[in-house]
Amino acid sequence: MCLTSLSGNAIIAVTVQINHSLDTPMYFFLADLAVLEIFYTSSIAPLALENLLSMGKTPVCITGCGTQMFFFVFLGGVDCVLLAVMAYDRFIAICYPLRYTLIVNWPLCVELMVGSLVLGFLLSLPLAVLIFHLPFCNNREIYRFYCDMPVVMRLACADTHVHRTALYLISFIVLNIPLSVISTSYVFIVEAILQIQSAEGHHRASPNLLLSHLSGPPAVWLHQLYILVPQFQLLS
């Protein structure tokens, strides 16, 4: 599964890079998402595989755990923000098709990507610093396939109320705000589709046709919606 994820995302990124017909904002963000997924998988899978092969006997030091937690939160936060950016991109493409190239230009795409990275870094850094400054009694090694933050906090010999509050706050920002942007964008997208006047347009762009293409978990739905959107851009 790890090799499938890495190779699949690498193929997407390389294909977008070498195929000049895909030099559009939509595929730019898709390639960025694929590269992020490569790093995201690489921050978790190696330790998990090592623990699997050693039957859970591979220790991880606190420093290693803190490093993994930082990259997990950083890459996960960038991932969520980038999904919101992709939803905004499709919102502009469908609801304002004639102004799309003026609004979503290449400088803006780069700024949105850099902004996603900066926001993810700013959200993950304080949490990582708080974890690194916790006193950890005699337990300097952790025998787990993944360094989950609540588990690491339970090993500390100090009050972790502030740390837990920071974790919940950052989790709320990383998950709920991008989800709100994505949901709002697709509400406007569906509304724009329903306003298509022609009967053929309604038949081709109706929600029933859209939903018939969707299968799998919500994350897969979002990806499939993102791939299907050029059809609606053409209809517009």
TrEMBL record:
<feature type="transmembrane region" description="Helical">
    <location>
        <begin position="69"/>
        <end position="88"/>
    </location>
</feature>
<feature type="transmembrane region" description="Helical">
    <location>
        <begin position="168"/>
        <end position="194"/>
    </location>
</feature>
<feature type="domain" description="G-protein coupled receptors family 1 profile">
    <location>
        <begin position="8"/>
        <end position="236"/>
    </location>
</feature>
<keyword id="KW-0552">Olfaction</keyword>
<keyword id="KW-1133">Transmembrane helix</keyword>
<dbReference type="InterPro" id="IPR000725">
    <property type="entry name" value="Olfact_rcpt"/>
</dbReference>
<dbReference type="Pfam" id="PF13853">
    <property type="entry name" value="7tm_4"/>
</dbReference>
<keyword id="KW-1003">Cell membrane</keyword>
<protein>
    <submittedName>
        <fullName>Olfactory receptor 10V1</fullName>
    </submittedName>
</protein>
<keyword id="KW-0716">Sensory transduction</keyword>
<keyword id="KW-0807">Transducer</keyword>
<dbReference type="InterPro" id="IPR000276">
    <property type="entry name" value="GPCR_Rhodpsn"/>
</dbReference>
<feature type="transmembrane region" description="Helical">
    <location>
        <begin position="108"/>
        <end position="134"/>
    </location>
</feature>
<comment type="function">
    <text>Putative odorant or sperm cell receptor.</text>
</comment>
<keyword id="KW-0812">Transmembrane</keyword>
<keyword id="KW-0297">G-protein coupled receptor</keyword>
<feature type="transmembrane region" description="Helical">
    <location>
        <begin position="27"/>
        <end position="49"/>
    </location>
</feature>
<dbReference type="GO" id="GO:0004930">
    <property type="term" value="F:G protein-coupled receptor activity"/>
</dbReference>
<dbReference type="InterPro" id="IPR017452">
    <property type="entry name" value="GPCR_Rhodpsn_7TM"/>
</dbReference>
<dbReference type="GO" id="GO:0005886">
    <property type="term" value="C:plasma membrane"/>
</dbReference>
<keyword id="KW-0675">Receptor</keyword>
<dbReference type="GO" id="GO:0004984">
    <property type="term" value="F:olfactory receptor activity"/>
</dbReference>
<keyword id="KW-0472">Membrane</keyword>
